[in-house]
Amino acid sequence: MFLMSRMTGRSFLFLAVWMQSVLNVQLKVSPHIVLIVADDLGWNDVGWHNSQMYTPNLDKLAQNGVILNSSYVLPVCTPTRSSLLTGYYPYHVGLQHNVIHSSRPSHLYMNFTLLPQKLKELNYTTHMVGKWHLGFCNWNYTPTYRGFDSFLGMYLGAEDYYTHSTGNSTVPGYDFRFNKSVYHEVTGEYSANVFARRAVDIINSVDPEKESLFLYVPFQSVHYPLQVPKKYEDIYSHIQNKARRTYCGMVSALDEAVGNITNALTQRGYMDNLLLIFTTDNGGPVNHGANNWPLRGSKNTLWEGGTKGAAFVYSKTLLNKTKYVNTEMFHVVDWFPTLLSVAGGKAEPGLDGINLWPTIQSGVPSNRSMFVYNIDEIMQNAAIRTASVA
Ligand SMILES: *[C@@H]1O[C@H](CO)[C@@H](O)[C@H](O)[C@H]1NC(C)=O
Ligand SMILES: *[C@@H]1O[C@H](CO)[C@@H](O)[C@H](O)[C@H]1NC(C)=O
Ligand SMILES: *[C@@H]1O[C@H](CO)[C@@H](O)[C@H](O)[C@H]1NC(C)=O
Ligand SMILES: *[C@@H]1O[C@H](CO)[C@@H](O)[C@H](O)[C@H]1NC(C)=O
Ligand SMILES: *[C@@H]1O[C@H](CO)[C@@H](O)[C@H](O)[C@H]1NC(C)=O
Ligand SMILES: *[C@@H]1O[C@H](CO)[C@@H](O)[C@H](O)[C@H]1NC(C)=O
Ligand SMILES: *[C@@H]1O[C@H](CO)[C@@H](O)[C@H](O)[C@H]1NC(C)=O
Ligand SMILES: *[C@@H]1O[C@H](CO)[C@@H](O)[C@H](O)[C@H]1NC(C)=O
Fold it and tell me: Where is the Sulfatase N-terminal domain (predicted)?
């Protein structure tokens, strides 16, 4: 009071502004986390690996962030997603073999606490937009029972991008829901646009100064069937091969969707406290238009082309070192403890994943010296990778 009474109006204003900035720092919520997963995107299908690809939005994020050059995933969809959300290798959760087909009653057991559930314990607002593929034979196994406040998307894979039906599957059916309800409002609309719009709505519904957002956006793009609005395919009119031309167009549509999401994040004021992760779920299927050059093999194989994923992280404020290629060993199982640490939480001991935030943040050597590619007793294949050979 004494101090105040002797202050001029101007220095009082100074003090007020200073106090407010101190308070802002103290009250700053945990970082927002946006986790974008592309489906079946090959190593050579992104602009930062292949200048023939038109992915300006992704390239900008990758080049201003950290490009992960040794980021490994499982060779197909369900196993990768199970590791991403549990922090365990798929052979520890029973999902190491292939994907969950429409009539297969597999799921993530209830005793696994999923990443969004952990983040909810830390008071995050959690939303999912896109492809689940982790089981739906009981409501308890579906997204809104596993930590997500809302869900818009599909339970399975390989749907038609416009009708949202798994037309050619062994058990055909419409596969599109909003939360628990079957949702027909977007029939006829390309899924990349539907998902980008929902993601933008979520971004605009949260106040980034007051609550922390975890937004999980596993796009349908660029899985087959090969379908895209003509204008994206026309970008690649010089490509003779029809499958490749369509596939590349699908990648550019995905890029535009990511651009719309990042524009919304910028406009709504998330960027000063945001970590954005982009990764593929597995290597590209070369029989469906993808390209993994110079890596050997394809989706569904344990070769590099099936398991070395295109990935980057972007943040304006949370990374100590940016604009470089990080070659440290990383595995999809590591996102669980790594993201929890960014959120201010801690994973339980015994996980297969390791918190590699120091490596991502500053490029210091990775604590991971080996990983298991997979152990699939039905396919009768297994492999490990170790860092040291000397
Ligand atoms: C990144 O990975 C690719 C594919 O394995 C390899 O050709 C390239 O040399 C790597 N880059 C660095 C900087 O290690
Ligand atoms: C969850 O339950 C399964 C099946 O009973 C078991 O194999 C697995 O070890 C359990 N995992 C955890 C993390 O408790
Ligand atoms: C989450 O919010 C509740 C209610 O406001 C509060 O009691 C709790 O401490 C918060 N937890 C964390 C980890 O911030
Ligand atoms: C889905 O749930 C979210 C969160 O509760 C809600 O905002 C949204 O309106 C719901 N969607 C539908 C179609 O009910
Ligand atoms: C179904 O099969 C037809 C003929 O092979 C193909 O043209 C179409 O793209 C497929 N649709 C889906 C949803 O896979
Ligand atoms: C991106 O946003 C623009 C403007 O709202 C819209 O016209 C376009 O369809 C969106 N693209 C995608 C892929 O969502
Ligand atoms: C990165 O920077 C932050 C803030 O300056 C610091 O606390 C942290 O220790 C740094 N991390 C590493 C691994 O250097
Ligand atoms: C590696 O793990 C050890 C033991 O948990 C820890 O003390 C160290 O900080 C970690 N280093 C990095 C770079 O993550």
Answer: 31-344
CATH number of the domain that residue 144 is part of: 3.40.720.10
- pLDDT value of residue 4: 46
Question: In degrees, to the nearest 5, what angle opens at C-alpha 80 toward C-alphas 244 and 224?
Answer: 25
pTM above 0.85, yes or no: yes
Mutate which of 126, 149, 150, 215 to test ligand 4's pocket (most atoms within 8 Å of Cβ)? 150
For residue 303, the enclosing domain spans: 32-386
In a domain? residue 19? no
Ligand 3, pocket-test mutation among 26, 119, 123, most atoms within 8 A of CB: 123
Q: Using one digit for the tens of pLDDT, what is the confidence trace for 167-189?
A: 666 667 999 999 999 999 999 99
Backbone angles phi, psi at 382, to 5 degrees: -160, 155
Residue-wise pLDDT for 152-168, tens only, equals 999 999 999 999 998 66
Give the burial class of 230: count Cβ atoms within 10 A of its Cβ; 0-12 exposed, 13-18 middle, 19 or more buried.
exposed
> Which atom of ligand 7 is found nearest the CA of 357?
13
Q: By three-state DSSP, how is residue 216 classified?
A: strand
Model confidence at 102, pLDDT cuts 50, 70, 90, reads: confident
Instruction: Check pocket membership of 346 for ligand 3, CB cut-off 6 A.
Output: no
